[in-house]
């Protein structure tokens, strides 16, 4: 896979994740810390794949 495509697919930082999922920073960080979102901590920073976050919310909304 092309690394540019991969890097565009990643959402770095809790604030960016919060914007993508439409939740407050506080709620998002709570969900991240509890392991309730499909994300990992890399070098002390949260990172998630955009498609996995979207798929996760599509499943929970169904």
TrEMBL record:
Entry keyword set: DNA-binding
Superkingdom to which the source organism belongs: Bacteria
GO molecular function, one term: DNA binding
Identification of the protein by name: DNA-binding protein
Organism for this UniProt entry: Rhizobium tropici
